Amino acid sequence: MCFLCEGKHAAWSGRRAFLLAAGGAAAAAVAMPLRAQVDVGGSSGLRNLVPAEEVEGAATQEYSKLLAQARAKGALAPQSNSQLQRLRRIATRLIPQTAQWNDRARQWHWEVNLIGSKQINAFCMPGGKIAFYTGILEQLKLTDDEAAMIMGHEMAHALREHARARIAKSQGTGTLLSLGAQLLGLGQLGDMAASIGTQLLTLRFSREDETDADLVGLELAARGGYNPQASVSLWQKMEQAGAGANGPSFLSTHPSGPDRIQQLQANVPKVQGLYQRARS
Question: What's the whole-model pTM score?
Fold first, then answer.
């Protein structure tokens, strides 16, 4: 046997195995989603004291009422509205990124609607019910990237179940809620959640919740192919809009400030790779 040929064959076999392994690893890296790049920790355990189905059901009812009221006033944008279509295009790129933050999002019936109003406001209720007001698009002259940052932020509140945790806090201690669940049954706890459905639009989240939503929303938008730098320009616009005597309603529940902008600036590099990957 030719030892030289055997050596060449062994060398090629080893090289071939390495190339195949490297190629397989690269293919797996492409196929597998990258883990979260921002650090926000786990969701609040308090949310588990109130059934998710009941909160989402209450949100769906409240959202339907809001749309009906807007429709009655002629303020609900028709399907053909170009701004509504723009928002829905953004949503189609963000929604596929949501499940890694909350597996329940796979089951949500996501909706996006646009309401004619001068209000600078937007929200995403539990269960994926999104609404933008025309004021936030027009008065801030939002680019697609900036609108995606707002949508991602609001989606993050729903994904991280901040409203569900706030409901639990507002209804009493965890012990009382657990006892209520055992004695009254989840249905009555659900009625309790539904009874404050109207508050879902005006909940004031904690500073921690807001930071949480900023960072998760930043990553959602970057994964959807929207420039993370837009998170900074968005909040700079918000800060300018809030400088007048009558600041935007959005800022009453989402206060702006230099700390918020600095924190976003510090996290933009963490998601830059996700953005570039999505754009390639």
Answer: 0.77
* Domain coverage including residue 115: 39-279
Residue 195 dihedral angles phi and psi, to the nearest 5°: -65, -20
The total number of structural domains in the chain stands at 1
Structure confidence at residue 106 (pLDDT): 96
Q: Which residues are catalytic?
A: 154
Q: What is the pLDDT of residues 238-256, one digit of tens each?
A: 888 875 545 555 655 565 5
CA dihedral 255, 156, 212, 275 (to 10 degrees): -100
- Asked if residue 231 belongs to a domain, the reply is yes
The distance in angstroms from the start CA to the end CA of the chain is 50
Helix, strand counts (H, E) of the chain: 12, 3
Q: Which residues contact 5 (CB under 8 A, 6 or more apart)?
A: none
pLDDT at 9 over 90: no
**CA 54 to chain centroid:** 20
